[in-house]
Each structure stands twice: as structure tokens, then as C-alpha cells.
Amino acid sequence: MERIGIGFLGCGNIGSGVFRLLEEQGEQIERNEGVTFEVKRVLVRSLQKKRACRVPEELLTDRVDDVLNDPQISIVMEFMGGVEPAASYMIRALSAGKTVITANKMALATRWQDIWEAARKHGAGLYYEASVCGAIPIIRALTDSLQANRIHSVMGIINGTTNYILSRMSSEGAAYEDVLAQAQRLGLAEPDPTADVEGYDAAYKLSILSTLAFHRHVPVECVYREGITEITPLDVQCGKAFGLTLKLLAIAKEEDGRIQVRVHPTFIPDAHPLASVSDSFNAVHIDGHACGEMMFYGRGAGDYPTASALVSDLIKAAKSKRHAWPAVQGEVSQVADDWTCVHFIRMLAVDKPGVLSMVSGKLAEHGVSIASMMQKDRDPHTGYAQLVFLTHRAGERAVRRALSEMDAQMVSQVRIIRVEGDERSI
Ligand code: HSE
After folding, report:
1. Which of 221, 211, 218 is CA-nearest to residue 326?
2. How far apart are CA 354 and CA 365, in angstroms?
3. Beta strands 151-157; 244-255: pairing state
4. Using a 6 Å cutoff on CB, does residue 159 contact ligand 1?
5. Would you say the pTM of this structure is higher than 0.70?
6. Cα-to-centroid distance, 156 and ligand 1 (Å)
7. Phi, psi values for residue 111, rounded to 5°
8. Which of 139, 201, 220, 306 is the pocket-test mutation for ligand 1 (most atoms within 8 Å of CB)?
9. What is the pLDDT of residues 147-159, one digit of tens each?
10. Class of domain 340-425
11. Which of the four, 100, 148, 303, 308, has the lowest number of CB atoms within 10 Å?
């Protein structure tokens, strides 16, 4: 039986989850996979802190060298989160020829080139299934199972916190702030929710997914990003009237040889498979030229779902005769910023003759065609009403230009939400 020494960098929720899962499943893994894992050292910030697992005290250390310089440790599992010092520690471990297993999307997305260079140069293994969508085997799918494909698009709900918030806004008609506060009370949203609600977390993950899908490094800075903080119950309600569901989507597409990578609130037809993914679940929809459309669904966060992916990486790493590195050549220097899609446009308008013709005229001047329109919530005292339009497919730039030229005496508070999915079903 092969015995493999492993070291932990960090032992918070995720590290504790891995420790417990190894305790619980160790025998089964031994029996099925013919390998035993032994946790040799665990780097922690405080030696005294109470933990969610029973790590023997003698394994704990607050000196990183005790993990990185231990010759008995051949696999380092990184659970620290954040870019530094996690990235530097991973690079040191790889440079010493050790295998690294990580869930750290932020470090991977921002230091991709440095981390992979260290792995390649020293022939070391790097495994990161848990960095995107927790338990869902999406990295393995893109790197191992779908290599024969040209991937047309990857579209996903890859942040559970925002999916929870938008699902509740939709089912309860509640305001963003109220649902966020409720999610924070339940421990489903962080006390500082910025990374999730402003789309940063999804942008890191999309940088990794699009790099693997298109075989070129897509730096996280290339990802267009808009969060969900401005979304109102009225947006959700107007979308419903058109048969649309609102999600924070991460979208990577290759169209006409140009790559688009974007994270923003997106309406999708109620019948789209991603529309039924609610609460804090994640899902990724892939369209490849050979595989066609497929969807992966599951838990994107949490100690055990994340540990499930990390321990799977551990077994894969231990059983690999030769480590595989992703087939990524070069870097994407420019991404498309003028994508084409259906646009949902909502505005507050004075309800008087000539307003509709001004709006449709400006859209027409920029080649934007209206597919449907609705007027809502006319206030008899102010004479204002909500005008809501769905366009046919139109360029982002054309829509923005048309809206910037609208008569401000007639319309204000203009909002755009992009719509994805087959136009025939919208
Ligand atoms: N905060 C993330 C989410 C999980 O809400 O999905 C970790 O990436």
C-alpha cells in the first residue's frame, strides 16, 4: 500500500472538511484506490484556535517552512485563500517538486502564469478542481473529457451567494438589501459581501474556465464585470412578465474568432436549463461542436462539497504517473466589448404623446429593432410610467449610444439588462 505524506496550508472550514472527509473515507479510499494519505503537518495562524476537526496538536505549526521543507510531504494542500501569501507558498512548493492542490480561484486567476511556470519548470503537479464550482467536476470535464471539442460557449451560475439572493428576490418579490441582510444572518453571505455581489468571485472563476475552454490564457482583467447591487424587484417582475428569469451569469463565448468574457445580471428564458437552478446551487452550461449542449449542476461551496473535489484531486494526483498540465498556449490580449444580444431596457417615462416615437426613433437611428414593449405602473398624479422594451439581437455599443441620446425631459432612470438564450424562445 502506497503511503503519501501531505501537508496543509491553512485549516479553516475547507481544511477541516478535508481532514474529516479523509478520516471518514480513508479506509474506503485505501480499499478502492490502493493509497493511504497521512497528514504530516498543518500550517495555522493560531496554534490555540478551536477547529472544526480533531487535528493532533503535534501536527500544528505556525511556520510555513515546517510544511514546505519537510521531505516526507510530497503533496501540499492550500486552503489559505487570498492571493498572498498563498500564491508564493504554492510557487515554493511547486519549485521544490511537490504537488499542489488548491481551491484558491483568486490566486490562480491573478497569478496563473507564475504558478504554472513553476509547475512546468519543476515537473510538479497542480490540481485545482475545487477552485471553480466546489463539488462540480467542471475543471476535469474541460481538461479531460471534452478535449475533442471546439467549445462555442460556457455559461454558468458560478456564484452561490448571488444566486441565493436573486432566487429569493424572484420568489418573494423582496428588495436586494432585505434578502442580503437575511442571507448574512443565515451565514449564507459574507459580512463583507463585495466579492460575491459585485461579481469579482465569478470573474476569477470565469477567467479559469475560459482559459481552459479556449486554450489561451484569459486574464481576469479582461472579464467585463457588473454585480447585482442595482437590481430592483421591478426589474425581476418586468422580466417575469416577458417569461424571463434573472441570474448573475458568467459567460464565455467565441464568436467570429473573438472571445467574449463577461459577468453580469442576465435574463434567460424560463425554459432555459439554467433558469431552474435556484438557491445557492451552481450550474455550468457548455456548448461544444461535438458534444452539443450539456449542463453540470451541484453545490458550488461549503466545506464538504469543496472537500469532495479536493480529495478527488488528491487521489488523482497520487495515482498519476505523469502530471498533466492544461493545453494553454499564449494569452488573449483583446476581448470583444461589443457583443450582440437581446437587450431588456427599462425606463421611467412621461406618459404623453411623442415619447414612444422618440424612444423607438433613437433606437432605430442606431439600427436597434424593438421586439416587444410594455407600459407599467402609470402614476396618475405624476403622469410617469415605466416603459419596458425587449430588442431583437443588437450590438451593445449601438444600444448604449441610442440610450445616451434620448431626450432627458421625456425619459430617465434608464436600465439595461442583457438577455441570453435562443432568441426564438424569448
Ligand atoms: N462565495 C462563493 C459563492 C463560494 O457564493 O459561490 C466560493 O467561491
Report:
1. 211
2. 16
3. antiparallel
4. yes
5. yes
6. 13
7. -125, 30
8. 201
9. 999 999 999 999 9
10. alpha beta
11. 148
Atom of ligand 1 nearest to the CA of 164: 5
The answer, yes or no, to whether residue 426 has pLDDT greater than 80, is: no
Q: Which residues, at least 6 apart from 336, have a Cβ–Cβ distance to it below 8 Å? A: 255, 258, 259, 260
Report the first-to-last Cα separation within the chain, whole angstroms: 57
All three cell numbers of 255: 464568436
Separation of 368 CA from ligand 1 center, angstroms? 37
At 19, phi and psi to the nearest 5? -60, -45
Provide CATH 3.30.70.260 ranges for the chain: 340-425
User: 78: phi > 0 → left, psi -120 to 50 → alpha, else beta; which?
Assistant: beta
CB 298 near ligand 1, within 6 Å: no
Give yes or no: 205 in active site. yes
Distance of alpha carbon 374 from alpha carbon 224, whole angstroms = 29
Instruction: Identify the CATH assignment for 138-299 out of 3.30.360.10, 1.10.10.60, 3.30.70.3040, 3.30.565.10.
Output: 3.30.360.10
- Return d(Cα 324, Cα 133) in angstroms, integer: 21
Residue 332 in 3-state DSSP?
A: coil
How far, in Å, from the CA of 201 to the mean position of ligand 1? 7
The CATH classification number of 2-127 equals 3.40.50.720
Name the band, by pLDDT with cuts 50, 70 and 90, for residue 207. Answer: very high
Question: Where, residue-wise, is CATH 3.40.50.720 in the chain?
Answer: 2-127
